[in-house]
Amino acid sequence: MVTHRFDNFAESCCQALACLSIVHSVEDLCRSWSSVSLQQNFADYLLTIMIWIICIFLPYSFHCKDINLYFMTLDLNLWITVACAQRVLISNKLGEKLVGLLHEACSKELVILCHGFRATKDDSILVDLAAALASAGVNAFRFDFAGNGESEGLFQYGNYRKEADDLRSVVSYFSEQKYDIIALVGHSKGGNAVLLYASMYHDVTVIVNISGRFALEEGIEGRLGKNFLQRIKKDGYIDVRNKKGKFEYRVTEESLRDRLSTDTLLSSRSISKGCRGSH
User: Any idea where the Serine aminopeptidase S33 domain is (predicted)?
Assistant: First the structure.
């Protein structure tokens, strides 16, 4: 069943990447109305109408025959799915509210999508994957880990095990809703989260790690600067700033230890043999 559902996955992803930039712009405009449920419904209806208009009239606005009009062959459901995703709130084990969007299809199969470091559920990779999956008939759920995006909690630099626990709360919620969770997909740091999850729990049979870092002791100096271990032991934290000197986030000694103590190889070896992994 899983193989059958993913036969057209690559094709659907290409469609998503080709067209969703327009939808993203319109979606951002409509989502600004979403503070009240009535406004949210209005925004969804408005966006659906605008998508129909774009689909029907945009091709006629091009007069150059050399332009490849992808819009004529795109599945309209791909666009509407992005606009009409259902907002879902899930409590993690600490009581923090995790905010996510459910892209619904005509099935009970579900793929859960996890974002990377300092990203959110609205990362274009997750948005496009969710739309492509829904277009292929598979529900998709993208959410913000605690401390990121709209979710409650404080941002932390390491936090790998806690994010795996957040993912557990999401899986448990949808399992209780009688969804068949067929895969967990994580991008970048989210890839580490799905691997950790699979090493701790054995209830999802397909794990997809997209660009997750294997050696977590590497890549730290590029963010924290030279002699980061000495500096963080001295002060207890390091404030990371951008090139203009603006504060971005704080790395505590505890969160750094969390990253350095997370063993990706050991976690991978702890995944059950019945689990299908991909990266």
Answer: 107-272
